[in-house]
């Protein structure tokens, strides 16, 4: 069932779980995610970056997601814009039927971030769409913005973390629905030079200055060593890849107000490792179904692993019941057949 993230976060904030936000770029990735969410009866957020919009053509992606909504009526699904950077893009996403958008002004000066975010909130709320914004700075690469390298980021982490007092002011002045915070995570496969420790004290401080505000963790792939080893053993070259330990993410969603956890890199690794394996074992293979099919299965397995880490397995029914009870309706702009 298509919905905003609000009913998901309402339950996740107090309920000791987080909702996985997985990036979609094509049919096999989307199907693998949905098969996992259906098997585990978990809510999910399908998120679309600017790069995904142009790679797949948003009209094609929307049709694939509409098919998921029809195929899996018992799975709560939100369609989210990942790292939206302009008001024009936010407007397009709303027109395209997204139920949630991120306006990422974190690379701007603070006042400009407030102004941009408030403008996006006014437009989105008018259409019944919820808004995530970002404060603080993550490491790694995101969209066309290249962040700090892993060593520099990790050595100076304190100065990039989200400021709790600034978050309070930002929340009050923008009216956002959720906030992406910098608490020691980083985008991509090469996040750290040594084992990281998330800034749990900082999450706690933000929860005090912004009570009830759902928090979002970007850059939350764990870059499991076994997948890097597989990729490298089948001809890849990814030395020194390192991610956020899964036990720390499990703690952030169970004991803190982290409601949304963004994962893209780990899906890419699962797909890449499997396709490399197929080609390495049978260099004569050229039927796309024989490598994209196993790749889709690898995505499914990776997402099942994540849903269990996030403790969101089994929460689908409760989210749908909450959505119905609260009398939430689909925003007026949404009239597609998928709104079942
Ligand atoms: O944070 C960025 C996501 O991993 C999306 O990456 O811009 O390459 O689609 P992308
Ligand atoms: P990863 O690169 O850690 O998967 O993060 C993805 C993300 O934050 C998408 O917005
Ligand atoms: Zn991100």
Taken in chain order, the helices and strands follow as: HEHEHHEHEHEEEHHEHEHHEHHH
- The structure class reads alpha/beta
Sum up the overall morphology in one term. Answer: globular
Classified by CATH, the class is Alpha Beta
For the sheet with most strands, the description reads: 8 strands, parallel, barrel
Give the tally of structural domains: 1
How many extended strands? 10
CATH superfamily, by name, is: Aldolase class I
CATH architectural label: Alpha-Beta Barrel
Ligand inventory? glyceraldehyde-3-phosphate, 1,3-dihydroxyacetonephosphate, zinc ion
Strand content: 5-15%
Uncertain spans, ≥5 residues at pLDDT below 50?
A: 333-340
Any chance you could write out the topology, listing elements then pairs?
Blueprint: H1 6-15, E1 19-23, H2 27-40, E2 44-48, H3 50-56, H4 58-71, E3 77-84, H5 87-95, E4 100-103, H6 110-126, E5 130-135, E6 141-142, E7 145-146, H7 150-155, H8 164-174, E8 178-181, H9 200-209, E9 215-217, H10 225-233, H11 246-255, E10 258-263, H12 265-281, H13 288-310, H14 316-325
Parallel strand pairs: 1-2, 1-10, 2-3, 3-4, 4-5, 5-8, 8-9, 9-10
Antiparallel strand pairs: 6-7
Helix pairs in contact: 1-14, 2-4, 2-13, 3-4, 5-6, 8-9, 10-12, 12-13
Bound molecules: glyceraldehyde-3-phosphate, 1,3-dihydroxyacetonephosphate and zinc ion (ZN).
Kindly describe this structure.
The chain has a single domain, classed as Aldolase class I (TIM Barrel), CATH 3.20.20. The longest helix is centred in the last third of the chain and has 23 residues, at 288-310. Helix 5 (87-95) runs parallel beside helix 6 and helix 12 packs antiparallel against helix 13. It has helices at 6-15, 27-40, 50-56, 58-71, 87-95, 110-126, 150-155, 164-174, 200-209, 225-233, 246-255, 265-281, 288-310, 316-325; strands at residues 19-23, 44-48, 77-84, 100-103, 130-135, 141-142, 145-146, 178-181, 215-217, 258-263. Strands 1-2-3-4-5-8-9-10 form an 8-stranded parallel barrel, surrounded by 9 helices. With 340 residues, the protein is an alpha/beta fold. It is globular. Helix 2 (27-40) links the parallel strand 1 and strand 2. The model is unreliable at 333-340 (pLDDT under 50). It contains 14 helices and 10 strands. Helices cover 49% and strands 13% of the residues. The protein binds glyceraldehyde-3-phosphate (G3H), 1,3-dihydroxyacetonephosphate (13P) and zinc ion. 1,3-dihydroxyacetonephosphate binds at residues 23, 82-83, 187-188, 218-221, 262-265. Residues 23, 49, 51-52, 82-83, 142-143, 187, 264 line the site of glyceraldehyde-3-phosphate.
């Amino acid at each position: 069932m298509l919905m905003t993230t609000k009913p998901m976060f309402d339950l996740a904030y107090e309920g000791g779980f987080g909702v996985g936000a997985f990036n979609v770029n094509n049919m096999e990735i989307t199907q693998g995610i949905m098969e996992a969410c259906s098997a585990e009866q978990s809510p999910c957020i399908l998120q679309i970056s600017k790069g995904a919009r142009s790679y797949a053509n948003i009209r094609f992606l929307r049709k694939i997601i509409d098919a998921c909504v029809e195929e899996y009526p018992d799975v709560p699904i939100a369609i989210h814009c990942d790292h939206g950077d302009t008001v024009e893009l936010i407007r397009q996403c709303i027109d395209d039927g997204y139920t949630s958008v991120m306006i990422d002004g974190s690379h701007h000066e603070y006042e400009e971030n407030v102004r941009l975010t408030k403008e996006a909130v006014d437009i989105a709320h008018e259409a019944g769409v919820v808004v995530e914004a970002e404060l603080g700075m993550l490491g790694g690469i995101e969209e066309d913005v290249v962040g700090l390298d892993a060593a520099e980021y990790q050595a100076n982490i304190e100065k990039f973390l989200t400021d709790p007092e600034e978050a309070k002011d930002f929340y009050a002045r923008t009216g956002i629905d959720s906030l992406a915070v910098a608490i020691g995570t980083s985008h991509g496969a090469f996040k750290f030079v040594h084992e990281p420790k998330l800034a749990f004290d900082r999450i706690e401080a933000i929860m005090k200055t912004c009570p009830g505000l759902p928090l979002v963790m970007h850059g939350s792939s764990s870059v499991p060593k076994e997948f890097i080893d597989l990729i490298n053993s089948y001809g890849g070259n990814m030395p020194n890849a390192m991610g956020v330990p899964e036990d720390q993410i499990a703690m952030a969603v169970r004991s803190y107000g982290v409601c949304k956890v963004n994962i893209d890199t780990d899906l890419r690794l699962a797909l890449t490792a499997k396709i490399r394996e197929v080609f390495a074992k049978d260099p004569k293979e050229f039927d796309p179904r024989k490598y994209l099919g196993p790749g889709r299965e690898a995505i499914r397995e990776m997402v099942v692993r994540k849903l269990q880490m996030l403790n969101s397995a089994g929460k689908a029914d409760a989210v749908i019941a909450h959505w119905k009870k609260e009398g939430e309706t689909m925003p007026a702009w949404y009239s597609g057949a998928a709104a079942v």
